[in-house]
Amino acid sequence: MKKNITCADSYEAQKLASLIYIKDDNEIFISGILEIIENEIVISLKDKSAHSVLFRDKTQADEFADFIQSVIDGINKIIKTEVIEDIIEITKE
Fold first, then answer.
1. Within a 13 Å sphere around the CA of 15, how many CA atoms are in the beta-carbon half?
2. DSSP 47-88
3. Do 88 and 1 form a contact (C-beta atoms < 8 A)?
4. Digit-coded pLDDT (tens) for 15-46
5. What is the spatial distance between Cα 82 and Cα 68, in angstroms, rounded to a whole number?
6. Which of 25, 35, 41, 70 could covalently link to 75 via disulfide, CB atoms 3.0 to 4.6 Å apart?
């Protein structure tokens, strides 16, 4: 399954791609979503740090949260991410 998510700008898209970080065993670095505030998501990482990502609007933030939740829960795995300007294309299996 492939999903295009639009971030606030190209910097935010690059930041999100780096936070997803696929390890050799296809495990993501995100451990959870702490909060969604309008178009901003605060993401918790496995190293216990937290980072915020700004999306184009609340709809994009909600769509990302819904899409990534099955990966966080271990149901799906991210197999590819690609950034094209302010859009991040995420593919999961």
1. 17
2. TS-EEEEEBSSHHHHHHHHHHHHHHHTTSS-EEEEEEETTEE
3. no
4. 999 988 776 666 788 999 999 999 999 999 99
5. 15
6. 70
Residue 35, token pair as written in the block: 């909060």
Query: Per the structure block, which two tokens stand in for 49?
Result: 């740090």
CA separation for the pair 22, 71 (Å, rounded)? 12
Determine the Cα angle at 20 with ends 5 and 83, to 5°: 45
pTM, entire model: 0.90
Give me the sheet containing 40-45, strands edge to edge.
Answer: 30-37, 40-45, 50-54
